[in-house]
Amino acid sequence: MVLKVFFPSCCSSAESGILIGRWIPEQSSAVILAVVHFPFIPVQVKQYLREVQQVTKVSVSVLGSWNNSKQEKEESLSEFLEDLGTIFSHEPWIQISKEGDSKFWNCSTLQKQPDNHREEEIILVYYDQRKVMLSHLHPPSDTADLGAEDASKLSAIFNTVASSKVLFMTDRYDDGPIKMTHWQSDGIEASIIVELMKQASVPACMLLTFLLSLVSGVCNSRVLKFWPLSFLWSKLSTCEQLGHRLQHLQVISSSKKAQNQTQLMRKANIFVSLLIDVALGILLMSWLYRKNQIGHLADTLIPVADHVAEELQDLLQWLMGAPAGLKMNRALDQVLGRFFLYHIHLWISYIHLMSPFIEMILWYVGLSACLGLTVALCILSDIIALLTFHIYCFYVYGARLYCLKIYGLSSLWRLFRGKKWNVLRQRVDSCSYDLDQLFIGTLLFTILLFLLPTTALYYLVFTLLCLLVVIVQGLIHLLVDLIDSLPLYSIILRFCRSYRLAAGVKFRVLEQQDGKPLRLLMQLHPCRHPSLVLPLSMGTGELKQESRKLVTQESMGTGEQKTGHSSVGKRKIQLLKKQCLYQPSVLWQCGADIQAADLQLLP
Amino acid sequence: MEERRYRSASGAPLALRCRQHSASCRELAVRCPRLQLRSLSAVTSAVWLAAYGLFVLCQNSMVLSAAIFLTLIGLIIYLHFVKIDQESLLVIGSLGIQVTSSYASGKESTTFIEMSQVKDVVINEAIHMQKVIYYLCILLQDPQDPQGVSEVVPLFQSSQPRLDCLIEVYKSCHEILDQRKAASQSDGVK
Fold first, then answer.
1. Does residue A118 sit in helix, strand or coil?
2. Residues of chain B contacting residue A581, judged by C-beta atoms under 8 Å apart
3. Chain A contacts of B138, Cβ < 8 Å?
4. Are A278 and A301 within one domain?
5. Are residues A321 and A459 in the same domain?
6. Where, by residue number, does the polypeptide cross the bilayer (chain A) (predicted)?
7. Per the CB < 8 Å rule, is B25 touching A509?
8. Of A234, A259, A289, at which residue does a domain stop?
9. pLDDT (tens digit, 9 = 90+) per residue, A436-474?
């Protein structure tokens, strides 16, 4: 079989020495992790390798020799290197030699058993050790499974490099008995800021957990669970958003380390999203509180409410006349019209009553924008809902009236035909009515039928108005969900450090020379499809769906329908992930599915 | 390295370049016809004439600058995302198969399939409208079912070479893939 040697590009200019790494016999490939330089004592090298093997569970051993001769001589060195093969017995013993500045290296193997006389072809694959180590190309399910036969070959190699972190901790300034060259041998990479943040994060997390437990204790206390208050909390989207953010904070401040890559990315995404949210909220606050913007807003609020009320009154007058040329039943028209007009009058009086306090209320409510832009947007949506409460009331009246009418009509229609609805059997049965029952039933039926257009028109008009308000609220919620679930950290990582989100590898054939082994360069190829990034946003969207479900319905049983949407979306994502190479993925399809479940109108 | 001329399914001229890097590594590249100057100028003149007609109607010079802008943006998007210049297949005996498409703007999109996932490389027929076209595809192994195929990856989708070119590519690929089978059989015998 073809022998593959994975050589780190950082060791190309290293001094002569021996190669240590891992030999994978099933794939006939050697992953070289470092070069150990002369002088060394073989016993110490073996002991060091044993220690490393214990810690990393990777079977590291001496694989061969590396000869970097600057001049043309040193034949004795090559013989010495061959003799080393007898001290560190490894089958096959790989010898790589480089002459001067030549690009083409010699690579040969020494086989102990001369029975296989076939000419083995050798392929040299260069890889960037730093990028391979930092990328997480191994799938999360089999991180502990280094010896599995059906693990993909390349993931085994990535696993080997990633698990050998301990090997890369010694640099050339250490005073150990062994001098190595690898990607960190010029000095371990670390950032003071990152280290400081790691040290500071532990007490910060503990403090945050304590505060959050206090807050959630207050929220879950019995006082707030009485019927009017809990109903109010469930209707206000601000409370829901605050609960959602509280959940996020709990996820971030948990003291357990993230188990695998997806959890880490989720935590990072939530953290960045929270930061951006709070930053935007503070920006909004600074704009609101300067130059008396709150005063301006409060001043325009009352005239806007008055204007809306006047428009509604005009609309009702139009309906009470002959709207669009239709002829309404005058009496019912007048009754409904006057009833709604009276409501509007009441509403305007209440608004005018509250007008001196509006500015103060707005001022204090605007302070909560420092909790985040999403909270401010939710408050805006709630204010819109409160201001258009009368439209919602009209819709409810119109809908109830229409519903009653349709119910009555259908029941009397059945009477007209001589049938009845059998509640026990849930079907329509024939029934013989008395004459007076038939007479009154027919009369009522006729009355209801002729009053139908009027009620239907009122119902239609107010449903459309309510729909308009719901659409505006829906757009605001869409924006809030976008800010909540946009995986900003992944996007930034994709552009700045694309090797950390690598989706695959790319091989480039380097210059060849006859007689020398084939040279390939292995590069990491950043993920192009959002399928790698999307499951992270699905996670937060799912959480929100769950929290909405829990708040609106007390029992988990009635929430089955809604989870149907998110689980379908999740299954779709998993299918997409499997075939992510060849099928285009729709970016926000699943997010849109979840939004559609939210916009529900009353029956 | 040889280069031979073939035709695509729609009649456009293609060039197949076959390069042998080593005994078990081969690169096969199909070069598509370049962007024709006459089609480019035809589209540009059509768009600009339409914009001029609109300008004469509504006397707003923004229409003209919008048309120029749109033409430029459209051309850049076409070159970067749509027009494929060359599609190549790199078969490395024991590592895998790499499929690269390079676009006219220089962008390259690559996919690497490991050898353990590759079941076979075959030529399939497809009925498209009134034509029967042949395409080369890689069959991927289903990890659960050793006889099953989990996915079919079509190759050379935008250049669509005809059967003679595909047979050449098929033969080249199979020379290397059969080496792998021979090696695994001899290992099995041992």
1. coil
2. 111, 153
3. none
4. no
5. yes
6. 200-219, 270-289, 335-354, 361-388, 394-415, 435-452
7. yes
8. A289
9. 989 999 999 999 998 898 889 889 989 999 999 999 999
Q: What is the pLDDT of residue A399?
A: 93
The average confidence (pLDDT) of chain B is 90
Q: Please name which of A363, A370, A195 lies closest in space to residue A293, comparing C-alpha atoms.
A: A363
Distance CA A488, CA A205 (A): 22
Q: Are residues A13 and A124 in the same domain?
A: yes
Q: In what order do the strands lie in the sheet with B131-141?
A: B118-128, B131-141, B149-154
Residue A441 lies in a domain: yes
Cα distance between residue A549 and residue A562, in whole Å? 8
Number of H helices, E strands in chain A: 17, 12
- 8 Å CB contact between A420 and A430: yes
pLDDT at residue B129 is higher than 60: yes
Predicted confidence at residue B134, as pLDDT, reads 93
Q: How far apart are the C-alpha atoms of B72 and A395, rounded to whole Å?
A: 51
Task: Give B153's contacts in chain A (Cβ within 8 Å).
Answer: 581-582
Count of domains in chain A?
3
3-class secondary-structure state, position A502 = strand
B151 sits in which H/E element: strand B149-154
Paired tokens of A189: 């990479």
CB atoms under 10 Å from CB of A3, counted, come to 19
- Tell me whether B158 touches chain A (CB under 8 Å): no
Range of the domain at A270: 199-289
B94–A4: do the CB atoms touch at under 8 Å?
Answer: yes
- DSSP H or E stretch at residue A95: strand A93-99
How far is CA B177 from each of CA A1, A172, A329, A461, rounded to the nearest angstrom? Answer: 13, 45, 85, 71
Q: Which of A121, A152, A153 sits opposite B24 (nearest CB)?
A: A121
Helix extents (H) in A6-57:
42-56
Determine the residue of chain B that is closest to A28 in CA distance: B94
Residue ranges of the domains in chain B?
2-32+84-188, 37-82
pLDDT for A553 beyond 50:
no
A154/B25 Cβ within 8 A: no
CATH 2.60.120 fits B2-32+84-188, yes or no: no
Based on the domain organization, do A72 and A127 belong to the same domain? Answer: yes
Supply the DSSP symbol for B36.
Answer: P
List of chain B residues whose C-beta atoms are within 8 Å of the C-beta of residue A27: 94
Count CA atoms within 13 Å of residue A599 on its CB side. Answer: 17
**Cβ neighbours of residue A88 under 8 Å, at least 6 residues apart?**
A18, A42, A45, A46, A61, A62
Same domain, A433 and A508: no
Q: Is A505 on the interface with B (CB under 8 A)?
A: yes
B96: which strand partners?
A: B92, B114
Contacts with A, B 13-72, CB within 8 Å: 21-25, 27
Last residue within a domain, chosen from A261, A289, A317: A289
On whether residue A194 sits in a domain, the answer given is no
- CA B11 vs CA A7, B33, B87, B123, B159: distances in Å: 46, 11, 17, 19, 10
Instruction: Name every chain B residue with its beta carbon within 8 A of the beta carbon of A154.
Output: 114
Q: Do A331 and A419 belong to one domain?
A: yes
Does A506 share its domain with A467?
A: no
Contact A504 B111 (CB under 8 A): yes
- Is A409 among the domain residues? yes
* Reported ipTM: 0.83
Distance (Å) of CA B76 to CA A373, A458, B72, B105, B129? 37, 54, 6, 8, 31
Comparing CA positions, the residue from A91, A68, A71, A70 lying closest to residue A81 is A68
Chain A hits for B183, CB-CB cut-off 8 Å, are 1-2
Beta strands A502-509 and A518-526, pairing class: antiparallel
Q: Cβ–Cβ contacts within 10 Å for residue A492, how many?
A: 13
- pTM of this prediction? 0.70
